[in-house]
Specification:
It is a single chain. By secondary structure, the chain is α+β, with helices and mostly antiparallel strands. It has a single domain, classed as Alpha-Beta Complex (Creatine Amidinohydrolase). The chain is built from 2 helices and 11 strands; from the N terminus they run ββββααβββββββ. The strands form 5 sheets. The chain has a 3-stranded antiparallel sheet, with helices on one face. A two-stranded antiparallel ribbon has the order 1-4. The protein has a two-stranded antiparallel sheet with strand order 2-3. Helix 1 runs antiparallel to helix 2. It is globular. It starts with 18 loop residues before the first strand and ends in a 12-residue tail after the last strand.
Length: about 170
């Protein structure tokens, strides 16, 4: 299953009924970049896929709730990672195999990073991707990626958050 790999597999595939599909893309507006990932099921999501989606969605929600001026980037990663680990998909980087996020602005991926150990302190005006995921090799992977902006009082989601595995098409 290609979605079990954070950056997919480089081979053509035909969509199949009930397949989990992970799509990652972005765009540029007046020189500023955006980046988002969505995971959908073409058909009926399995109970396991729904469960994993809900865990990933909760990890993303908790990260944005925690992010604020004065918080360390590494601590935001830890908040999301704890949700996934506590749900049984850990420990550590076992199924959430990448950092929580990256800075974004004039470049699609830029410093600072929401990653373990980062001591960088968030400040108003910074923008980041918030992209927790659970990847189960041989099964499927689910990631949600949205952009958040650090405000004077917390964090604000800049992209519409996905709340379902059903495609909105």
């Amino acid at each position: 299953e290609s979605s079990a790999y954070p950056h997919g597999l480089p081979k053509p595939r035909t969509l199949e009924e009930n397949q989990v599909v992970l799509v990652d893309g972005g765009l540029s507006v007046h020189g500023y970049q955006s980046d988002m990932s969505r995971t959908v099921v073409f058909g009926t999501p399995s109970p396991e896929a729904r469960k994993v989606f809900d865990i990933v969605h909760e990890a993303q929600r908790r990260a944005i709730e925690f992010a604020a001026p004065g918080k360390k980037c590494g601590d935001v990663d830890a908040v999301a990672r704890k949700v996934i680990t506590d749900a049984g998909y850990g420990p550590d980087y076992r199924t959430f195999t990448h950092r929580l996020g990256h800075g974004i602005g004039l470049e699609g991926h830029e410093w600072p990073y929401l990653v373990r150990g980062s001591q960088i302190v968030m400040q108003p005006g910074m923008t980041f991707s918030d992209e927790p995921g659970i990847y189960q090799y041989g099964k499927f992977g689910i990631r949600l990626e949205d952009i958040l902006a650090i405000t004077e009082t917390g964090a604000e989601m800049m992209t519409p958050s996905e709340t379902s595995l059903s495609p909105n098409i």
